[in-house]
Amino acid sequence: MRLFGIAAFALALLTTAPPVLAGGEDVVIEDAWSRASIGTSRPGVAYMTLQNTGAEPAVVTGLRTNLAMMPMIHASTTDAQGVTRMSHMEEVKIAAGEAVALEPGGLHVMLMDLQHPMVEGESYALSVIFADGTEATIEVPILGIAARGPSD
Amino acid sequence: MRRRALLQYGALGLGAGVATLFAGWWQVDGPDAPDVSNGRPLPLTAMDFAMTDHERQPVGPQTLIGRASLVFFGFTWCPQVCPTTLADISHWLDGLGTEADTLDVVLITVDPERDTVEAMAEYVGYFHPQIRGWTGSPAEIARAAEGFRVRYEKAPLEGGDYTMNHTSGVFLFDAAGALVSIIDYHEPREFALPKIRRALARSPSEAVSGTG
């Protein structure tokens, strides 16, 4: 019941979003990591947690990095038949005081059109763009291709 | 408590409507949805297809008879589900240690267009050495998918690229080729390991000591 209440409240906040939005300065991005790539032909991936510490919802509308020409947020969903597919998220809303996790199996940053290989031990800058025009730039460490998380 | 909470939702108007929709979704399409798939994989002995593994060896369902096996479908251009599944499986294998020595682990590609033998060899080399990569002609992959009751389809991406939607479960067979269990993509190790141990335990002892 309590969980449902929280979910309902978060959804209510999302759908009744006032015009004032939280932006880059209110969103704390933590636990960012990527997997190493094999060359540049396959897409790369990045994960992180976005915590909205502001009093208003925040909306992520895009990404920018020199590493990839087309960075975008994808959602992985699995249907009742067990088929997993990915869909491009035009925007991701983070309710005030809530966190959205980009993690293996769910939402994730897809780095399409890599400009150079992602090498384990290196890192790259990734800017997260918010609907209010602000940006938050983070440095994303590149872990091994078989990594399962930032503490692995 | 419940009554007051409901009143609060009511005050939120649209939000409460969406919550109701959400509750409806949860019952109709969510995790409690009735399983409409009647598709469990056939026994390996009832399948028929011919592929090539990442070391250029001819392989097929009969290759997996005699030892317990773990089979899943994927493609190496996938940055998300497949590395996660492969990393999870590597983690399971590490957790099983020498117990897993008699387990065959196979990734079958659903993307033969890009996943050549070379691409498979390059890719599986980054994960646990016990993991094999199988590829083949589109027709043979379709035959394999039919046997495993796996669905897959090409999905175009912006920029002319494409990705593959596909069944993401991990199939566990015993040494006789009978399905023991399906491990869901994402299943925690504490649930996955007992299932794998069960498949290994069902292996005839002669098969366990026979091949290596």
From TrEMBL, chain A:
The keyword Signal applies. InterPro entries: LpqE-like, Lxx211020-like, PCuAC_sf. It holds the Pfam family PCuAC. Residues 1-22 form the signal peptide. Keywords: Signal. It comes from Pseudosulfitobacter koreensis. This is Copper chaperone PCu(A)C.
From TrEMBL, chain B:
Residues 40-205 form the Thioredoxin domain. Belongs to the SCO1/2 family. Keywords: Copper. InterPro entries: SCO1/SenC, Thioredoxin-like_sf, Thioredoxin_domain. SUPFAM superfamilies: Thioredoxin-like. It holds the Pfam family SCO1-SenC. This is SCO family protein. PROSITE patterns: THIOREDOXIN_2 (PS51352). It comes from Pseudosulfitobacter koreensis.
